From TrEMBL, chain A:
Family that this chain belongs to: Belongs to the adaptor complexes large subunit family.
GO BP annotations listed: intracellular protein transport; vesicle-mediated transport
Organism expressing this protein natively: Saccharomycodes ludwigii
Keyword entries, A-Z: Cytoplasmic vesicle, Golgi apparatus, Membrane, Protein transport, Transport
Domain Clathrin adaptor alpha/beta/gamma-adaptin appendage Ig-like subdomain, first and last residues per copy: 717-831
Keyword Membrane in annotation: yes
InterPro entries xrefs: Adaptor_Complx_Large_Subunit (IPR050840), AP1_complex_gsu (IPR017107), ARM-like (IPR011989), ARM-type_fold (IPR016024), Clathrin/coatomer_adapt-like_N (IPR002553), Clathrin_a/b/g-adaptin_app_Ig (IPR008152), Clathrin_app_Ig-like_sf (IPR013041)
Protein name according to UniProt: AP-1 complex subunit gamma
Coiled coil segments of this chain: none
Compartments it resides in: Cytoplasmic vesicle membrane; Golgi apparatus
SMART domains noted in UniProt: Alpha_adaptinC2
TrEMBL record, chain B:
Chief localisation class: membrane
Annotated family: Belongs to the adaptor complexes small subunit family.
Superkingdom field: Eukaryota
Name of the featured protein: AP complex subunit sigma
Keyword Acetylation: no
Xref: InterPro entries: AP1_sigma, AP_complex_ssu, AP_mu_sigma_su, Longin-like_dom_sf
Keywords, ordered alphabetically: Cytoplasmic vesicle, Golgi apparatus, Membrane, Protein transport, Transport
Annotated GO MF terms: clathrin adaptor activity
GO-annotated biological processes: intracellular protein transport
Subcellular location: Cytoplasmic vesicle membrane; Golgi apparatus
Annotated ranges, domain AP complex mu/sigma subunit: 4-57, 82-177
Length: 838, 188
């Protein structure tokens, strides 16, 4: 068996993956057999362990070598111990706790060794492998080192780190470690020393002390948040008391250290680009932040801290280094909610970050500004120029953040300016930015609806709205979801001035009707790029054509409008896009009363008639109903086909906009906006919306049906549509799960899943979570879940909206997770195959 | 509470050269993190920033074949999201030095810029220790790279020593004990 070097070389030289595998398995097997040999030479054992470590790095199985590490540690030679401990801390981490009991004695023994390096090795390993039992067993030894070997900085720093780990695993030991002013003693000892003799002592001890204090304070905070979970009230109060007594007196000392460290002149050992030990400075800032935020009655000292922070912030304000320290300073300022002048200073520092060349600085600045906006909106807004500039960074996460920030600083006075900046960005975006584009669409629309809902007027002027809609459709029309398109229709419909409606209709239609008028090559390219596949643009044009056909007499001939609808019909019928055809039918009917020419009216009638035998039942029904209407006398028609009234949108989902940081990369936030549930009480608007939304007729009918048979309707307003199918019944939990397909078009299906609890003994499920998986060729987006509690006794239903895109059979795997009455987690999983196909 | 949750070194071919876990992860989580982060980091372009937001659940939707989307009530997500520190979302800081990526997983609230400087410190220290370090040095002497790492970072994943000189001094002392051990074993 060769050496480690040979093994590594062999693995590296393997030219295929299979070869590499065979080398590795062979070597593993060899090591296994050798490990059984008790008489093996110690050098061979070492080489085996080294190979095992290499296997560990490669991600291979190494469990068979775990005991062997312990054999090496037991050896007296340093070389064996060093390797043995290294192997133990890597191979045994989070492994079998029984093995740890084997190692406990060895560590215990080595902690009392005279050689400080052996003690340190034992300490490091202990820290790495620490669990609650190990912590309780060995903490006296660690404490012993801290007390007795105070003169050896190397050991003190290692022990303090182990102490932190001990407190993470066994928080009750906080008291043992912090009592008697131990920490204060250490700080004092090393501060004086570091002032006098720099030779022997480093910042290591201070870093370790700070780490220890940080962990203590964090533990204290966490225990306080969950009282009664692990410790009783008194115990927690005890922690508080000890920490307060021992840590509060250290604050001035720590501030003093920070001050000296900050103003210190050049020290090559700790220098990072001209800043003296940023690691220590940041650790100090973090610890001070925790100390000040954990209610230690230290308000007297707050002024000193503010003074110190102002000093740090201003001395660094002009130079471009020590970004990490400045960043931490800003964080401290906002976590502790300090003086307004400091907050302004903090925001300005972040502004400077935005202007720097380094993209990392931009990222952290945007990220922090997002958190700061609610506190200092005006100051952040001042930096909008730089924020907008970040849109053009290469990094998608920076782009995303700056967009989020732009929407966060949106207000009445800068709306126009920001919208034009966003449009400029959209005009330069490509398909690869689709996610961001949709994000802009969603947020601009939400902005409109939010402001309308809150104040009944929007701060976007009608001119802005017009510009916004044209730009959104032009650049993003290809990607916008149906629901968002109907939102845009809503805005158009609610325009107060007829002039704007007309302007928009002309703008939209002229691009489609006048194409190829002057056959210039570049115009053609432009057309194909922006309008040819632009579904959104076409859909809105189609709707406007029907709705406002009477306003645009001067701009277009009746011929043009009718042939526009006809060609649109041909285009989308061949694509069998039923959604669009629905709109075309409505437009035809509406246009028929707005034009005078008999021939053209007849053409419209023929168009509708062509669908009267359609294979699609909904279309067929609609076409036939429209034909009946078509033949009604003019005044009846006029009444029915009158201009739509302005109506508002009921936004039922809460917190769509305000989840600042929840704006994740997946399309979740997008879909959240899409599923707005409408309140059934508002039947009038609801029906109108349904017409507009063009959710196929069965939805409206089922809604009506439910009104009649109110028996299935339940308390939280969720009712089971008559068309729903039972997907699954769970006898154990008395749950019935129903599914209802609300719409199905090519490549997209929307369905609702209902969960009903038929248990009669008050057994309700809480904390409900639904997971849904679909086949490979499809993608599922989960919308709004109406509730996380499943009420018992048929007391109501939970509804989950689901959207599936892709192709193939509609097959679901559904998993429900919830807590039953005894707070045990229960899981139900089942598969269901629908007859429908995408 | 743990600043650096893990650290690993990745070659440009996606091979792990050194790895250390500071926070507690299950075997499955470890594999998933390694797989996801490796692909993420290797696909980054040069001008992008060195910070990646990594979220286990969102990654799952893009990487696994059958897509699973979770939906929880927003209020619940807010309360459960905070105490699940180990495996849920965290940030990944990476930096490329020659052919190696140095990658750290850090807590949401940690200082990203400082982590970059920590990585740089480690590289500088390795450089001084090996004398113009290259990937091969680390491949063949991974245990030495671990020794340096353990002197520099404490078991809670925070920086333990900011002085390069001190680290190298201690390591070289330990190395000399090791070689004298070796010598004595040969002589006896």
């Amino acid at each position: 068996m060769g050496s480690l070097k040979q093994f590594i070389k062999d693995v590296r030289n393997a030219n295929t993956l299979a070869k590499e595998r065979s080398i590795i398995t062979k070597e593993s097997a060899k090591i296994r057999t050798q490990l059984r040999n008790d008489q093996l030479e110690i050098s061979k054992r070492r080489s085996n362990i080294q190979k095992l470590l290499y296997l560990y790095i490669l991600g291979e199985k190494t469990h068979f070598g775990q005991v062997e590490c312990i054999n090496l540690i037991a050896s007296d030679n340093f070389i064996n111990k060093r390797l043995g401990y290294l192997a133990a801390m890597l191979l045994l981490k989070n492994e079998n706790p029984d093995l740890l009991t084997l190692i406990t004695n060895l560590i215990n023994y080595d902690l009392q060794h005279s050689n400080k390096y052996i003690v340190a090795l034992a300490l490091t390993t202990m820290g790495d492998l620490c669990n609650a039992e190990l912590a309780i067993d060995l903490y006296p030894d660690v404490l012993n080192i801290l007390n007795k070997r105070l003169d050896e900085p190397y050991l003190i720093k290692h022990s303090l780190f182990v102490a932190s780990e001990i407190i993470l695993k066994a928080p009750q030991l906080i008291i043992q470690f912090t009592n008697d002013g131990l920490i204060g003693k250490i700080i004092k000892n090393y501060r004086n020393r570091s002032l006098r003799t720099l030779s022997n002592c480093t910042h290591g001890v201070l870093l370790a002390v700070l780490q220890f204090m940080k962990i203590c304070l964090l533990q204290q905070k966490q225990q306080k948040q969950e009282p009664g979970k692990e410790f009783s009230e008194e115990e927690i109060q005890d922690f508080d008391e000890t920490i307060k007594r021992n840590f509060t007196p250290l604050i001035p000392e720590l501030m003093e250290i920070l001050k000296t460290c900050h103003t210190n002149s050049f020290e090559p050992e700790y220098d990072v680009n001209g800043v003296s030990d940023p690691f220590l400075q940041v650790a100090l800032l973090q610890t001070l932040t925790l100390l000040f935020s954990s209610n230690l009655d230290v308000d007297v000292l707050k002024n000193d801290l503010q003074y110190l922070l102002t000093n740090i912030a201003t001395t660094n304000e002009t130079n471009n280094r020590g970004f990490s320290v400045q960043y931490e300073t800003v964080k401290t300022i906002f976590i502790l909610d300090l003086d307004p002048s400091l907050r302004v200073l903090g925001v300005n520092i972040l502004g400077k970050f935005l202007n720097s060349k380094d993209s990392n600085n931009k990222y952290v600045a945007l990220n922090t500004l997002l958190k700061v906006v609610p506190i200092e909106p005006e100051t952040v807004t001042r930096h909008k120029k730089f924020i907008v500039r970040c849109l053009y960074e290469l990094d998608p996460s920076i782009k995303r953040r700056s967009l989020e920030l732009i929407f966060a600083i949106f207000n009445k006075s800068n709306a126009g300016e920001l919208i034009s900046e966003l449009i400029k960005f959209l005009s330069q975006s490509t398909e690869s930015d689709k996610g961001l584009m949709l994000y802009i669409v969603d947020n601009l629309l939400d902005l409109y609806f939010d402001s309308v809902n809150n104040t009944h007027t929007t701060f976007l002027s009608e001119a802005d709205q017009f510009i916004m809609i044209v730009a959104l459709l032009k650049y993003c029309g290809k990607f916008i979801y149906f629901d968002r398109l109907s939102d845009i229709l809503l805005i158009v419909n609610n325009f107060k001035q007829t002039e704007t409606k007309k302007k928009l209709t002309v703008e939209l239609l002229s691009k489609l009707i006048n194409k190829g008028k002057d056959n210039k090559k570049e115009d053609d390219d432009y057309y194909y790029y922006y309008y040819d596949n632009n579904y959104g643009w076409k859909l809105i044009s189609c709707w406007c054509c029907g709705e406002y056909g009477d306003l645009i007499h001067n701009e277009f001939l009746d011929d043009q409008l009718v042939s526009f609808l006809t060609s649109l019909n041909q285009e989308f019928y061949s694509q069998s896009n039923m959604h669009m055809i629905n709109y075309i039918l409505t437009s035809c009917l509406k246009l028929s009363i707005k034009i005078a020419d008999k021939q053209n009216i007849e053409k419209l009638r023929q168009l509708i008639k062509s669908h009267s035998m359609d294979a699609n039942l909904i279309l067929q029904m609609k076409a036939n109903q429209f034909l009946v209407l078509f033949n009604e006398p003019a005044h009846v028609k006029r009444g029915i086909l009158d201009v739509m009234p302005a109506f508002s949108k009921n936004v039922a989902t809460v917190g769509v906009k305000n989840n600042g940081n929840g704006l994740s990369y997946n399309e979740d936030s997008v879909s959240k906006g899409n599923y707005k549930t409408f309140n059934n009480k508002n039947q009038q608007t609801d029906l109108l919306l349904d017409l507009l939304d063009d959710i196929p007729a069965n939805d409206t009918t089922s809604a009506l049906a439910n009104d009649v048979s109110a028996s299935t309707a339940d308390m939280n307003g969720i009712s089971l549509p008559t068309s729903s199918i039972e997907l699954y019944t769970s006898k154990d939990y008395c749950l019935k799960i129903y599914g209802n397909i609300t719409s199905i078009a090519d490549n997209e299906a929307n369905l609702d899943i209902f969960i009903q609890n038929t248990a009669t003994n008050n057994r309700k499920g809480t904390n409900l979570k639904i997971f849904i998986a679909v086949s490979k060729h499809q993608k599922v987006t989960l919308g709004h879940l109406s509730d996380t509690i499943i009420p018992s006794n048929n007391g109501g239903m939970v509804k989950q909206k689901v959207r599936i895109t892709g192709e193939g059979k509609l097959k679901l795997r559904v998993r429900l997770q919830f807590l039953d009455e005894t707070n045990n987690e229960k899981t139900i999983q089942f598969d269901y195959k629908f007859d429908e196909k995408l | 509470m743990i600043d650096v949750k893990y650290m690993f070194l990745l070659s440009r071919q996606g091979k792990v050269r050194l790895i250390k876990w500071y926070d507690v992860f299950t075997h499955k989580e470890k594999q998933r993190i390694l797989k996801d982060i490796s692909t993420l980091v290797l696909s980054r372009k040069a001008k992008m920033c060195n910070i990646i937001e990594y979220n286990n659940t969102t990654e799952a939707t893009t990487t696994t074949t059958s897509t699973v989307a979770t939906s929880t009530n927003t209020a619940i997500a807010a309360t459960t999201g905070t105490n699940n520190s180990g495996s849920s979302g965290h940030k990944v800081i990476y930096k490329r030095y020659a052919s190696l990526f140095f990658i750290c997983g850090i807590d949401e609230n940690s200082n990203e810029l400082l982590t970059l400087e920590m990585i740089h410190r480690y590289v500088e220290t390795l450089d001084k220790y090996f004398g113009n370090v290259c990937e091969l040095d680390i491949i063949f002497n991974f245990s030495k790279a671990y020794y340096v790492l353990n002197e520099m970072f404490g078991c809670t994943g925070a920086l333990m020593e900011s002085s390069k000189k001190d680290i190298l001094h201690n390591i070289s002392l330990m190395d000399s004990i090791e070689s004298s051990d070796n010598l004595s074993s040969v002589l006896s």
